[in-house]
Every structure is written in structure tokens, then in C-alpha cells.
Amino acid sequence: MNRRDFNQLLGMGAAGIMIPTLPAFSRSVSPEALLEPGLDIAVKKRLADAALNAAKSMGATYADVRIGRYLNQFVLTRENKVQGIINSESFGVGVRVIVNGCWGFASVGDARDEAVVAKAAKTAVAIAKANARLLTEPVQLAPQKGYGEVSWKAPIKRNAFEVPIKEKVDLLLSCNAAAMQNGANFVNNVLFQVNEQKYFASTDGTYADQDIHRIGPNFTVTAVDAQSGKFSTRNSLSSPMGMGYDYLQVNPSDKLTGVTTRYNKGYDMLEDITLAAKQAKEKLTAKSVEAGKYDLVLDPSHLWLTIHESVGHPSNLTVY
Amino acid sequence: MAIILTKEEAKKIIDKVLSYSKSDEMSVNLSGGRTGNIRYARNAVSTSGESTNLSLGVTSVYGKRSGTATINEFDDVSLEKTVRRAEEIAKLAPENPEYMPMLGPQTYLNTDPYSENTAKMNPDYRAQATFESLDPCRKKNLTAAGYMEDSTRFNAIGNTKGLFAYNRETSVEFSITVRTADGLGSGYATSDVTDVSKLSTKNSTEIAMQKALASASARALEPGKYTVILEPAALVSNVDASLMVALVRSMDARNADEGRSFLSKKGGGTRLGEKLFDERVTIYSDPTNLEVPSGAFSGDGRPQEKITWIEKGVVKNMPYSRYWAEKKGVKATPPGGNFIMEGGTQSLADMIKSTEKGILVTRLWYIRPVDPQTLLYTGLTRDGTFYIENGQIKFPVKNFRFNESPVIMLNNLEAMGKPVRIGGNLVPPLKIRDFTFTSLSDAV
């Protein structure tokens, strides 16, 4: 899921439309398919070597391969209804090469044998060669030593994909009911879970297998005053986390209490949604702030974005 | 197997899969495609590639329970296994009380959003198109950053109630930002087409170059309310939020009925039939428009037809989900695949000429909602903002932050130019009075 899709999913508050767009090229699958193991590591290495060797034989001075199996699950609810459960799987192999000082890339979805990935390498080489005529300065990579065969797994305590759907649905619907009891007219509540199984190999001699998990609970509570024609919303104060289902474990030491309670590594959805409903209702009759100059206290829900834009992007050389 | 299947090839596979069904209802979705891209920055190609994919999805339904399984192998055994699996999942799924039975056969308009020229694009074509953009910038000591993405894809759906629909589509999107060597001037242009032979990366680049050179020594103007000319790229974007897309996408009937939309009426109900905009504002969707053709059916198989959303400032139609339309007893009109805003005949140059005092805005970006009730948005100008006096561009101005709602903006309409294609839609440049700029930005 790229940044735009992710923002689309999380930026859904405004109109309460929460059906996400599936990431490009992903397919719907059954919940059980999300637990099936991906390709055996020996198979991944064989595919990777086929691509790297094909690239080198066609003149690549550098090549890398990414074999990705991305699993997503969305549990979509509103008020007392489950609107849908979307399970999707996206599998593909991408090959990146430098030929004649120029980058080229190609990826294929159905890449379960060596011939297919070698063909992708060939396309990547053809692209690099076509673009080489535009070159003024060849790409020069900083020296990178290979790491050999290594692997990493996200230190999750409970794999979200192993949690029965019923447990997730029960949590979301009980939270929605609490919101409705506390002044909300509408609730859209989505649980978003990701497992990215990423394999990377390069001609520098690295073969890295990674198993990455993320979870993102996210709701929007809406309060409506039909008489005045006004409505107001309040979104959840959760964050997308590199964790498993353990993020939804209520843990008092992960709470920062105050006017509004905030959460670290344990998110209390029931507590947050109850307060959100009350606050959405309060906002309906709240007086607007007078425009002018003020001293501000920036909550982390604001400050993270300021740091992301003003420090993050400039320091990673993003050209926007 | 080819990546772009013909209608006949797709139907043959879908019919075979449908023949395995044992559930109450079943639908099959078959889609595939290829995308190609080339990206450059600091006058050099940085990344370039191609991706292909083909897959088939089966959704089986028992009552109001549905289950989906997918596969990318196409032998008979694999296909039948996928159907059995979808059926097993459906039996275990929670009931969706809002589930709507599948549609039967539909009649679709003949739309043609496909071009063989685009389908045939290859790495050499992309390299040449990039050369035509890079070369003039290099020669003038300007710095270019650009991106071109082409896509060729097909999508077919069929179900056990007899519905079958097939669409194939191509598109190319190109955008270019040019900066002066000192980094103080910046210009932008974008172009998107169905048929790549209608794309000129050279022409778009020339516009961005002119804007970069002309915007280098920007002066600061006081923030406040100004008459502005918003170019189409300041109204519509596919990569960021934008004022006109926000308006068109906020017209959903259910949200309005539920009291949480700018189209909700005080005391309940919707503002359908009310005049909310200047009488020159007419916005409609039409999949058969030759300049912006789009697919003939929506994701759930409903036909896309010509439909007017806003006519002479009056809200005429709102999109409905099938569930909500049935509940309300109205036609289930899907959201459009494109939108077309009627305009005038003036060119951008004519619009500048007829402006006594105003600001020309090339582009708005980083647009975020402030108040969903009034569709109030905030964002910034960028890549070419100019002061106009007595019908002429006088000097470049520093960028502004704005606070504005498309609803208010389309009431403060002064003039409309000739519509142009942008992001698959047709939108005219607009001259708007009292557009609200709230503060200055030093960003280029």
C-alpha cells in the first residue's frame, strides 16, 4: 500500500465514506489465505538468483530483486453493521538494474518460475538501455558490502491475521455501540491489518528476508443536530503501528491521561470512542476560536506531522 | 497468456468459472494490465519501469453472506477449486443486512477509452518523450523534474444472473516542474490523454519553462480577498486533494440524507433541487465524451450514463448506493467515471486581458479540509503565481495560503474559459472574485 492509498484510507473522516480503495494490483483472497506461508526461502533465493544472473549476463553492473507478498485485511463496520471484510493478497517480483550507468525496472505479478523473472530482468535491461541516451552523468552507487543470507521478523506478540474475525467484529461493534450510547449519530470504524513478506537480493551479495506487520484501527464518530443542520466529527486518536493485534491490548501504563487520554503502545478503543462521541457532541455547540495570534500547546497528534514535513522530508532528500 | 484479453477471451473464461457455481449467486471479476513509467529530476532520469498483472476473483453468495477467493492460474482444476473455496468462505461470513442481490443483464453505452497508440508504448517511446522535455530545459540552463505514467488495462465482470461487462482502457499522465538555476523561479504544467499521440511533452514543458523564468523575482502582496484566475491544475488533481474533485465527490445522497454533508438540509432531508451555485455552473458526467471517454459500467456493474449533477447552479442529481436507492425508492445512479464542467469560449490569455486587478494561480497544493459542513479547504499556491493589472501580468508574487470552499467559490464566479482535459475530466479555467488568501509563504 503506497502513501497515497494509506492517506486515502486514513483521511476518510470528512464525509464518512470509508470503503478503501484496494492497493494497486492486489487481489481479494480468503481469510485463511492470509495465514498460508509464502514461498519457501530456498525458492525465493532461486528466483532471485535467476533474475540477478540474467541481468548480469545482459550487461548489468548492479541488480537487485524484490519478491513481495503483501497481505491486507480490512474489517469495515458502521454503527451496528459489518459492511464488509476485505482480504487481499498482492504477490509480485520486481527487478531493478543499472546498465550503461542508467536505472531500469520491471515487475511481474505471476512470477513463480525462473523464466518469468529472467524475462522481467530482460525488460528492465531494455528500459535502462533506452534511457541511457538521455544520460549526462552515470549513476554511481556508494559502496555497499553484502550481508549474506539474513532475516528479520517484526517482534509481534499476536499476529492479527491469526485472530478470529469474530473477535475483531465483536470489538468494533461493541465500541460502535458505546459511541451511539454516548451521543454519536453515526460511527464508521475500520480495522486495517498488514503483513508484508519482503525478500530482497542484490548483486552486492545480500539476501534479506523480512516479515513486517502493521495494524491501524481508525474510526470517525459523527454527531448531527438536524434542527440546526450542523454536524461535527471526531476521529480516533490511534496511530498506524508496526505491531500485531497486541496494539489493541488495553494497558494502563500505555496511557497518558489528561483532558483527552492519549495512547502509546496499547490502544484502548472503547475508552477513546466513548470520549470521541461526547466530544463530537460538545463540538456541535462549541464557540469558534477568534482568528488571531495565540500561544499554542501542540499535541503529538499535531506535532508529528510538523516534524514529518519540516524535518523528515528535507533530511531524506525528498524532492516534492 | 496475454495481459490484455479481448472481450471474447475474457467471456470464455468467466463463463467457464460461472458454470462451476453451486451458491445462490456468484460473480467473477477478471482484470489485467500493464503500466509503464519514467521519472526525472535535476535534468536526469532517476527511475523508469514497467509492471504487469492478471488476476481473477470469485464472489459466492448464500442469502446475505458472501465470500471471495482469487487465483492467477487458469487451468480447469484451479478455477473450480477457487469457486468451491469462495463458497466455503461465504457460508462462514457474517450477514451483511445491506447486501443487495446481484444485477441481471444490463445495457451499456458504447464507450471507447482505449487507444492502440498508448497500448504500443515502449521504453524507446518513453525515452524520446522525455528527451523532448529535458532537451529544451538543459539548453536554457533550467532544471526539470517530471513524471510520465502510461497504463493499458482491461476489466471484465460476469455473474450467474446473466450480467456481462467488458471494458478496456488506456491513459497517459504527464507532469513537469521546471525551476530556474538559482531555485527562485518555478513553473508547472500537466497533461493527460487517452491516446498518447495527442500528448506533447515538449509543449507542456515550454509552458512550465515560461512560468519558471517569469516567477523568479516574486514580490510580497498583502494577504486578503483577491480576484483570481484559477487554471485547471489549480482546480483538479489526481495526486492531491483538489477543490473541484472535493465538490463532486461530496455529493453522495446517503451522507446528505444522514445530515452530514454540505447537501444536508436544515431540519432534515437534502438540498436536491436547490440553487446553490452561480447559474452558469453546470456539471455532468458522460462516459461517451470523445475528449474524456470513461468506462461504460461502475464497479458493481451498473451502467454509466450521461447524468447532470448540477444544472445552471441547481443540484439536479446525487449518486446513490444500490442499497440506499432501494430504501429511498429512487434510481440507483452510480458516481460518474468522469466529470465535465461547462465553460465559456475565452482562452486563458483572454481572461487575463479582461482582468483589471487580480492574481493568476497556476496550481494549488497540500489541500486539506477545514470544515466538512461548508466544504471549507485550506492549501497553498505554488509553481507560478502572478499579479495582473489592467489586463497584463505585471510581476510574480510570493505564494499564499488560502481558505476557501468550492461552494462559495462557484457563487463568486466572474468568468469561465474554455474547458480543458485534466485528470480525465473537463474543467475550464475560472475567474473568481473575493478568493480568500490568509497568509504569505516564502516557499517557491
Automatic annotation (TrEMBL), chain B:
Query: Metalloprotease TldD/E C-terminal domain location, by residue?
Result: 223-438
Q: Where is the Metalloprotease TldD/E central domain?
A: 145-214
Q: Which InterPro entries match?
A: Metalloprtase-TldD/E_C, Metalloprtase-TldD/E_cen_dom, Metalloprtase-TldD/E_N, TldD/PmbA_N, TldD/PmbA_sf
A GO BP entry is: proteolysis
Q: Name one GO molecular function term.
A: metallopeptidase activity
Family annotation (Gene3D superfamilies): PmbA/TldD superfamily
Q: Which residues form the Metalloprotease TldD/E N-terminal domain?
A: 30-90
- Domain of life here? Bacteria
Q: What does the sequence similarity comment in the record state about its family? A: Belongs to the peptidase U62 family.
Protein's UniProt name: TldD/PmbA family protein
State the organism of origin: Spirosoma telluris
